[in-house]
Amino acid sequence: MPQPFQQGNLKKRLSVLVFLKGTTAPLVLYVEEPIALYDELTQILKLNSPTPRLIEKNTIGPVKKVCIQSTSICAVAIQEEQYI
Q1: Rounded distance between C-alpha atoms, residue 17 and residue 4, angstroms
Q2: Residue 47: pLDDT over 70
Q3: What is the mean pLDDT of residues 26-31?
Q4: What is the tens place of the pLDDT at every residue in 65-83?
Q5: Percent of the chain with pLDDT over 70
Q6: Do residues 73 and 47 lie in contact, with contact meaning Cβ atoms separated by under 8 Å?
Q7: Is the pLDDT of residue 5 over 80?
Q8: Among 4, 32, 54, 57, which residue carries the largest CB count within 10 Å?
């Protein structure tokens, strides 16, 4: 009997979670370089500029392109997912 979730079949990928003010669920973004996007977004959070900046990114997941106002971001996270 075959095992559907054999250890050798599992792969890992990273996604960037962007938490926006006024929403409960994060925006999940799959990009080529998730660590670089995470670093870019955390740098924007550190600057804490009152002047909004438009952030536009192409992604490789179900969301193909996203545009976010910098002042709407309240948190960022990296999530590791396993998939077959």
Answers
A1: 28
A2: yes
A3: 96
A4: 999 999 999 999 999 999 8
A5: 90
A6: no
A7: no
A8: 57
Handedness of CA 8, 9, 14, 17 (dihedral sign): negative
Identify the CA nearest to 55 among candidates 81, 23, 13, 16.
Answer: 16
* Tokens of residue 80, six digits: 């590791």
Structure tokens, 28: 């999940």
What six digits make up the tokens of 67? 């545009």
46: left (phi over 0), alpha (psi -120 to 50) or beta: alpha
> Rounded to whole angstroms, what are the CA distances from 47 to 8, 28, 42, 44, 58?
43, 23, 9, 5, 23
Spatial neighbors of 4 by CB under 8 A, at least 6 apart, are none
The answer, yes or no, to whether residue 43 has pLDDT greater than 90, is yes
